Amino acid sequence: MARMHSRRRGSSGSDRPAADEPPEWSDVDTEAIEERVVELAEAGHDPSQIGLELRDEGVQGTPIPDVKLATGKKVTEILEEHDAAADLPEDLRNLMERAVRLRAHMDDNPGDAQNKRALQNTESKIRRLVDYYRGDELDEAFTYEYDEAKELLE
């Protein structure tokens, strides 16, 4: 299936092997993992960055290949339990940051048609995500506006 805003197809990649339990070599206490997740979140890392950090560096010198297998909870669930979750979902925040950067570029370069199109595509993705998250992770009255997004991200 093609991508949403281009005619290209997605690149195929290898799938993670199906596993029901963590590997034998990764036997770290679940409480230590949760403490490390909260510590990384307080340091300003996003959930995806936390997963990469745990995969690469681990806890107590032991890498954690999959937080959900090791703890039974996703990184975002751990953060919600410890009241360290972000106010916006990570994917929505990243798209808003991109839209703010593109809008600033468009102010400096008004004739840049490619970036105008990229801004339109990004803002339509944001609106669809807001519709998806509205009422669940976002307020019912939340709507995307450039000025509000700029204030939220500062």
Write up this protein.
The chain has two domains: 30-81; 90-153, Helix Hairpins. Helix content is 54%, strand content 0%. The protein has helices spanning 30-42, 47-56, 67-71, 75-81, 90-108, 113-133, 146-153. The longest helix is centred in the C-terminal third of the chain and has 21 residues, at 113-133. It is globular, with a radius of gyration of 19 Å. The mean pLDDT is 90.
Short structural description:
This protein is mainly α and 154 residues long. It has helices at 30-42, 47-56, 67-71, 75-81, 90-108, 113-133, 146-153.
CATH top level of the largest domain? Mainly Alpha
Q: Going by CATH, what is the homologous superfamily of the largest domain?
A: S15/NS1, RNA-binding
Low-confidence stretches: none
Tally of individual domains: 2
List the helices and strands and how they pair.
Elements: H1 30-42, H2 47-56, H3 67-71, H4 75-81, H5 90-108, H6 113-133, H7 146-153
Helix pairs in contact: 1-2, 5-6, 5-7
